[in-house]
Amino acid sequence: MKLLAIIPAYNEQDCIVGTVRELQRVAPTVDILVINDGSTDDTGKICRQEGFNFLDLPVNVGLSTGFQAGMKYADRHGYDCAIQFDADGQHRPEYIQPMLDALVSEGADIVIGSRFVSKKKGASARMAGSALISFLIKLTTGKKLFDPTSGMRMYNKRAIAEFVKRSDFGPEPDTLAFLIRKGFKVVEVQAEMRDRETGESYLSFSKSIMYMARAFVSITIVQWLR
After folding, report:
1. 195: which DSSP letter?
2. What are the Glycosyltransferase 2-like domain coordinates in residue numbering (predicted)?
3. CATH number at residue 121
4. Is 52 exposed, middle or buried (0-12, 13-18, 19+ CB in 10 A)?
5. Full DSSP string of 26-83
6. How far is CA 42 from CA 5, 70, 141, in A?
7. Is 134 helix (H, G, I), strand (E, B) or coil?
């Protein structure tokens, strides 16, 4: 299986080298594409100096559009599957192979590296939001997802094609809900994740609130109009 790791990066100069090097060491057969999403720090310069394979976007377009650029790259270069992999070191490359195994053995279109298949969610506002999204996806699709907000997701060729041909897709829970309704098979594999140590997250506190609000509206209303 020809697999591409898509690494969206916005102001990740302190993390990007360690993330890419660990991925190269632990999963040497996986190709890597960094999406430098208009970073204002030295992320792009570092990628160039280190000889990383990367797309250098001239302005910050956000996670969804940046990730779509990576999916278009995967499609044009004939990859069988692609995995979204965080630049900040939270995602652990040792879980890529179990996810790939599930993609093949279970005939899945999408595999989520889930923190909560065999572990319970903690008590926090963020976990409450995740539980609400899980409930909404179950309500609208009949499918129970334990960790719908996990950013570690693997997509097969069929799923890649959907991202390429549609402009309203992002690597978000509402897209998962829509694809499940379209007949795509989504499975979860238990995965452990680290805490972010440095760098700049796409989601600040205020953006997290807006993220949850948009997910609620999209899953309950917008996805039915797609």
Report:
1. P
2. 6-161
3. 3.90.550.10
4. buried
5. H-TTSEEEEEEES-SSSHHHHHHHHT--EEEESS---HHHHHHHHHHHHHHTT-SEEE
6. 21, 20, 43
7. helix
Angle at alpha carbon of residue 114, lines to 136 and 61, rounded to 5° = 75
CA max distance for the chain: 48
Query: Model confidence over 121-133: pLDDT tens digits?
Result: 665 566 677 888 9
Number of domains in the chain: 1
At 64, list the tokens.
């969804």
* Rounded-to-integer distance, Cα 30 and Cα 144, Å: 30
β-strand pairing of 31-37 with 3-9? parallel
Mean confidence (pLDDT) of the chain = 90
Average pLDDT over residues 62-73: 95
**How many C-beta atoms surround the C-beta of residue 81 within 10 A?**
23
pTM of the model: 0.87
Distance from C-alpha of 136 to C-alpha of 134, rounded to nearest angstrom = 6
Alpha-carbon gap, residue 18 to 172, rounded angstroms: 26
